[in-house]
Write a structure and sequence with these properties.
about 180 residues; Serine Threonine Protein Phosphatase 5, Tetratricopeptide repeat; 7 helices; about 10% strand
């Protein structure tokens, strides 16, 4: 039995430019099967019942797998994807509060280095924002880097001398 089908959804999206695949090449099972069915007590059979065909390449990925657009070890695929997405968000966003919220979201997910990088980029986009420096100071403090925390809280105070939070945090760090 031969049925012309469509490629798997990931390869389909990739081929139509609607997705970027990141990771390792898949193992390559493209054709749907039926079974296993017992022929007798010693032998079982698994039969292909359809053949998937890409409308673009007129082939399928049986035995060869789907090639990712960005090849990385599967253990690093999620972080790689996250870095790419964050880079695009940072590049396109002009809202300092939105970028700050992303930084804090990453912090709550224990992605501290990524959070710090997002807040640094937010400062690059908004160098006159006391709030951006205050947030970065907090992340450095939570990460145990008191020297950079004080530096950023100090810059926040320079931009907004009424920032009570920055004053409290600096006093707390110096008291330790």
């Amino acid at each position: 039995m031969r049925i012309r089908g469509i490629v798997n959804k990931y390869q389909f999206c990739q081929q139509f430019g609607r997705a970027t695949l990141i990771g390792e090449t898949t193992r390559g099972g493209a054709n749907s099967t039926r079974g296993p069915e017992a022929l007798n007590e010693y032998f079982f059979v698994k039969m292909p019942v359809s053949r998937m065909i890409s409308p673009i390449t007129q082939t399928n990925w049986e035995g060869v797998g789907v090639e990712p657009d960005i090849k990385v070890d599967s253990n690093n695929a999620l972080d790689t994807a996250l870095n790419i997405i964050l880079s695009k968000i940072i590049e396109q966003s002009t809202d300092e509060r939105f970028l700050n919220s992303i930084g804090y979201s990453l912090l709550y997910k224990n992605k501290i280095e990524l959070a710090i990088n997002v807040l640094k980029e937010n400062i690059n986009k908004h160098p006159r924002s006391a709030d951006c420096y205050d947030s970065l100071g907090e992340l450095y403090m939570l990460n145990g880097d008191n020297k950079l925390a004080i530096k950023n809280y100090g810059k926040s105070l320079e931009l907004n001398p009424n920032n009570e939070n920055a004053k409290r945090q600096i006093d707390q760090i110096l008291a330790e």
